[in-house]
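(Deposited chain)
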Amino acid sequence: MKKYKITMIIILLLSLITCGVSLMFLGDSIPSHIGINGNPDQWSSKYFILLFPGVMSLITIIMLLLCKVAKLTENYKKYMLLTGTILNVMFYVLTVVFIVYGITYTEETPAFDISKIMMILFGILFIVLGNFMPKIEKNRTLGLKTYWSMYNEVTWQKTHRFTGFVSVIVGVLTLVAGFFFKELVNFIILMVLVFGLVISCSIASYVYYKQEKKKESENQ
């Protein structure tokens, strides 16, 4: 558990250093929002990039405080810190993406297709989440929480094993799409995959719930 705390703090410090150095190379204004067509549609001061380490600082403080103050099991604390570490990694990568985009973008020579980077990031995130979803203990904070998945331990475990499996598939498909498609197509594909993930896992939790109710009625 200690390694997650250290990793989370190191990534935060790395983000602060990266932003501090990049401010010397960025122009006065940089793209702060990229439209689904892959082109900037909003510009902000170069200090906009400080928003990322700001969010990472908030995540780190909240996770560390919860683990110190809240009455949580050691296993639950571990997953909270792992979640914080993953979020910090994702925000750090976003920080680097926006910095590189801000330095390289010009109207004459547009920068790289940021949608491909985002698809790769989301793909990795889904795969990582898919691998630790089945290990999450039943709780009211993390995981897929529907009335059916929360019914008992069996419905929780089955739902999260299924969710982990589907998350990995979605992650792989997202990575593949990121390599072969771009801009608006990538956005549509990501939305369809996320919608399919949520709906299929919710339906699965209902099916497992009905199975448990049937077993209970048969045992009465």
User: Anything to note?
Assistant: The chain is about 70% helix and 5% strand. The beta strands are 29-34, 40-45.
